[in-house]
Amino acid sequence: MNILRLGSCLAVAILFLSASFSTAQAQVFKPIHRPVYTYYEEPIHPSMARPIKFGVRAGLNVSDWSGEAAQTLLATSKLANGALAKDTRTGFHAGLFVIVPLGKHFAIEPGVQYSQKGVTAMGTVPVEQGEVTILQQGSATARMSYIDVPVLVRAYVTKGLYLYAGPQASYLAKGTVHVTAGGATETNGYQNDINVKDEFRSLDLGVVGGLGYQFHNGLGLSAGYDYGLSSLDNSNRYDAQNRVFKASASFSF
């Protein structure tokens, strides 16, 4: 009888230990729900909406004018008629932007930024020396300062890498043509700044496109092209448009 009672106690103890081990094992090997990675710059849990982000951007401009750029500069500067060589103007841009998510693969990015544009033409400049006017080799640089307002669409190709494109409206805040001839200073040459803002359209419409990469820490790099659609000449005498290559660094938070 004692043997049977002892066996019953052992059976109950074994069943209790087995049930306890099964419960502990289920807790140890509880499945882990990992976040779902999208093409956006950070992992997003299925139950969380992607946040709106704000950012700052700055970078290099390499600008040019297409079309009748030389004729436009001839009309707004002291460059004499004749053969002209055209060159780009280097400037910068800086501003703010907002990233508004649209699903997993797209986002809207409106922004505003200050942007230096223009072009340089080399040729001859009529310089008065006493009662005589002589032609000297010189240059005229259009220094145009715009406030750009782009509304872009981001399309994520892979995680972090995206393409962007969209319309842009640009307001001409300042426009001068810097003319030099004969030397680098007033003492041995000719220099003059001509205000030409009223001779150019205040509003320039265009399109923007490029590609960029967004890192997890908020840093971003991008390169793009501004293609102006509006004629710059306010009097419609000449047909010239803005062309700008931009390389940027940004930070979003």
TrEMBL record:
<dbReference type="InterPro" id="IPR011250">
    <property type="entry name" value="OMP/PagP_B-barrel"/>
</dbReference>
<keyword id="KW-0732">Signal</keyword>
<feature type="signal peptide">
    <location>
        <begin position="1"/>
        <end position="26"/>
    </location>
</feature>
<dbReference type="Pfam" id="PF13568">
    <property type="entry name" value="OMP_b-brl_2"/>
</dbReference>
<dbReference type="InterPro" id="IPR025665">
    <property type="entry name" value="Beta-barrel_OMP_2"/>
</dbReference>
<protein>
    <recommendedName>
        <fullName>Outer membrane protein beta-barrel domain-containing protein</fullName>
    </recommendedName>
</protein>
<feature type="domain" description="Outer membrane protein beta-barrel">
    <location>
        <begin position="50"/>
        <end position="233"/>
    </location>
</feature>
